Each structure stands twice: as structure tokens, then as C-alpha cells.
Amino acid sequence: MGSIKVKVHPLFIVLGVYYLFTKNLLLFVVYTLTAIIHELGHSFVASSLGYRLNKLTLMPFGAVISGDLNGLKSKEQIKIALAGPIINIVIGLFFVALWWLFPEIYAFTDVIVEANFSLGLINLLPIHSLDGGRILFSLLRLKFSRQTALKINKGIGVCFFVVLIGAFIYTAFNNINFSILLFALFILGGVLNKDEENVYVKALSTISYNRLKKGVKIKRIALDKSVSLYKMIRYLDDECINEVVVYDNLTPIAVLSQEKINKIILKGSLYAEIGKFIYVK
Fold this sequence. Notes:
Strand content: 5-15%
Oligomer: single chain
């Protein structure tokens, strides 16, 4: 629903150049595709909850969700954060299972497994810039204020940064590993960043003039006034003009046009009953 702005993180480009000079460009391409699939996992679950991605940022180590998912409970935020790593791990396990049936494909798919397991597991680390950090933040918000939870989250990120810098210095005296340095800088950037890069916004259905000239279906939905906005959104179809007929004890009391539906979604809490917004202008 709506267009998604695509942004490339500077460290993503640096990592690409690094892989190019180390003759591992194919590995970089596989990791890039894996990161996009990771993002799609987030986007799919967010869409099922009535939200969509506002901006997709290609990161050097997978997806990042930052900013506040306004109106969503901690449980839903955790679902969105887990979606990316889970889809990577499932894909990795799928190819591992194929090795038992077709061992000859190992040489062609080991990179895919490596990329998916790496991005999936790394993103589960409780670091502010990663999905694990989003999960930790959501859990902390159950006990602490937003500001306190954010400080704890970023503090853990700083600790990971220090450890990784130490690991990079250690490799400098042996077999230097610039990937560790890039990962450390990525974490530091997430800790210092104040922008809300990958914010999920409420999903709104919009129909363009050109689409109307070709003809658009009207989808009519009947719901009781006690149904929440969250459930109503799940019935909407962005390929149609939606109309919601609101009932009270099997009696129709209002018809919500597409324009009215969009206004209600923007104004209301996802968990509020649609009956409370019938007469909202």
C-alpha cells in the first residue's frame, strides 16, 4: 500500500567495494538479496498488522528497524522484528534439508545458507541497530520509560562496539578482518543515529486517477461497530475502493467511504472500536 522509498546506507557501499577487491562479489550479491528478503519478512508481518514500510534501507548486515511504531503494542513490535531473522533461518534450514536429498547441490548453495544463517543470527543480537535490539527495547518498555529503555539499549550497543573494536585490533596482528571493523562502525552509527529511518506507517489505500480510468473494483465489507481498527484493516484491499458497512446488533448504522476509512486509520488507535469513529469528520 503506497510506495516505499529505497535508501542505501554508506557502509553498504563500502562493504560492496571491500567484497569487490577481495574477489567475493558473488557473496556480496547473495548477501544483498538475502537482506532484501529479510526486509520483506518485516514488511509482510507489518502489513498484516495494518502497517507498511515507509522507507527501505539496504544495510551492510541486514535490516534495521528504528523509530517508534506508534499504536502497536510490544507484542506486535516483537512480531515484526522477529519476522526478518525467522525468514532467513527458515530459508537456511530449507537448503540444508535439500542437501540430504540432493548432496550435489551443496557446492552451489552453501553461500546461500551462510548468508541466511549469518544475517538471521546476527540480527538477533540485542544491539540497538538490529532486530534483537528492537525486541529488547520492546521488552524493556514493559518495565521502563521510553527514555530509560533507549539508554539501556544504546548502552549495550556501545559495549558491543568496544568488544568488536578490540577484536579488530587483535586481527590486525594476525589476519586482519575489515568486516569486523565495518560491523563495529555500523553499530556505532546506529547508537549515534537520531533519525527514524525505517519507520512503519499506517497502511492507507489510495487509488490514482489513472487506475480509475481503467476501472477499479469496489469492495464492500460488513463489520460490527465493536470490531477494532486493527481487525478492520486486515479486511481492506489496496487494489479496490473499500466501503465498510458498520452494524449495531445486525442493524446497519453507517457506511464508511474509502476517504473516511483513511481518516479514521490516521486519527485512531489500532485497538479502538470502529464505532467510536463513525461520526468523526
